[in-house]
């Protein structure tokens, strides 16, 4: 695992985001594969500090899956692969009976034994405290002083009777530098037909409002402003109208309406010639495109021009270059590791974003380019409907020293 820290080596950081809902539908197959691939990523990058942000912990049927959640957490905390991580903090929002608070978010933090000096912020006492031992907090995270948790107000996404979307923020200090880590889950596209109606879609506007709310909260006056990393399931989608017009540029569109309501039920795009072959069939929860390879060739990056939701926040959030395929919606069949489901247009939902000052920490001149990796986990195997996404980098010694105070990092004794 990670060797002893040296000033030249820096502190290895591994950030992972994973929507794990599928794991609790098929724990026997998917959970084992997920954990194996995660451990391999840890062993490959040898980080000193690991942060794993999960969404949809427990899956759709939380009450029935609780025992699977417990075994998943127990395995992570006690596995041989993680045995050199002598300290851990696990925060699980398990209070599913509280509709006004429940987010199904889970945040896991692992600290390697060679990392001697690490502190976590107490938001109530407004000071950093040394991290020792392993602790798991669940149930009422609202009263846990080592984090801030909020669920988005119901009126942010009125279509959904009971949304579990929200965020959890923690604050850490290591290698003489402090930063915030925010676990986030934004609103999905409820209907492909509604998403197609206009550009940008009504759903992207809802996500924009919620993300703006989070950024305002984590940079308000209550606490010192620090560099921050926001990673989770943003549910960012390609601009539906534009991507469909591009994929079906030579096709003709047929509109099928429901007999009882006369509302649009499906859209069928056919080639003008070639026996009027169906190119795309679009329904509320169906996106059946004739050629999935377009989302895999060159990692689907030709479609990044339609990935526009982050551009609204270009002054506040940065992202390293994407060189992996869309992270959602993969088949949940354990034998179909590379196949997408035909429920939604594949998109880069799972992301690791950072503030300008956090980007400066990641891209320090002393950092060798090859030591920074932004990629997905388990590209060839089934990891559930979302592929986890990770960022591996090193914080060089002195990044947060007084002469770098423009980053507003604080030196913690």
UniProtKB/TrEMBL annotation:
First-tier enzyme category under EC: hydrolase
Residue ranges of domain Inositol polyphosphate-related phosphatase in the record: 9-401
GO annotation terms (biological process): phosphatidylinositol dephosphorylation
Domain of life assignment: Eukaryota
Spans through the membrane: none
A GO MF term: inositol-polyphosphate 5-phosphatase activity
EC code: 3.1.3.56
Family designation: Belongs to the inositol 1,4,5-trisphosphate 5-phosphatase type I family.
Protein name in UniProt: inositol-polyphosphate 5-phosphatase
Organism: Amphiprion ocellaris
């Amino acid at each position: 695992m990670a060797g002893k820290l040296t000033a030249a080596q820096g502190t290895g950081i591994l950030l992972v985001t994973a929507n794990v809902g599928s794991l609790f539908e098929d724990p026997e197959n998917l959970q084992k594969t997920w954990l194996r691939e995660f451990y391999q990523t840890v062993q490959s990058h040898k980080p000193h500090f690991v942060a794993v942000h999960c969404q949809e912990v427990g899956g759709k049927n939380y009450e029935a899956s609780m025992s699977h959640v417990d075994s998943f957490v127990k395995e992570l905390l006690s596995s041989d692969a993680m045995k050199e991580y002598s300290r851990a903090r696990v925060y699980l929002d398990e209070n599913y009976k509280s509709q006004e608070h429940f987010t199904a978010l889970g945040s896991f933090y692992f600290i390697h034994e060679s990392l001697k000096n690490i502190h976590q912020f107490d938001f109530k006492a407004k000071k950093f405290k040394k991290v020792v031992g392993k602790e798991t907090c669940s149930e009422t995270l609202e009263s846990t002083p080592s984090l801030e948790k909020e669920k988005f107000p119901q009126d942010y996404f009125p279509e959904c009777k009971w949304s579990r979307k929200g965020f959890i923020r923690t604050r850490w200090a290591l290698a003489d530098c402090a930063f915030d880590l925010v676990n986030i889950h934004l609103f999905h596209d409820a209907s492909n037909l509604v998403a197609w109606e206009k550009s940008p879609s009504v759903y992207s506007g809802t996500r924009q409002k919620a993300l703006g709310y989070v950024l305002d909260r984590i940079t308000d006056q209550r606490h010192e402003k620090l560099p921050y990393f926001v990673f989770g399931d943003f549910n960012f989608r390609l601009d539906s109208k534009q991507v469909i017009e591009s994929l079906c540029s030579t096709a003709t569109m047929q509109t099928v309406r429901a007999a009882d309501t006369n509302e649009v039920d499906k859209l069928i795009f056919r080639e003008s010639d070639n026996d009027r072959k169906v190119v795309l069939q679009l329904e509320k929860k169906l996106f059946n495109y004739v050629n999935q390879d377009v989302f895999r060739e060159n990692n689907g990056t030709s479609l990044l021009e339609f990935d526009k939701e982050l551009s609204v926040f270009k002054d506040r959030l940065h992202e390293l270059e994407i060189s992996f395929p869309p992270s959602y919606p993969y088949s949940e069949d354990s034998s179909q590791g590379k196949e997408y489901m035909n429920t939604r247009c594949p998109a880069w939902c799972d992301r690791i974003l950072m503030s300008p000052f956090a980007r400066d920490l990641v891209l320090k001149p002393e950092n060798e380019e090859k030591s920074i990796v932004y990629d997905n986990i388990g590209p060839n195997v089934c990891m559930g409907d979302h592929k986890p996404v990770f960022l591996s980098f090193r914080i060089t010694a002195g990044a947060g020293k007084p002469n770098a105070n423009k980053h507003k990092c604080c030196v913690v004794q």
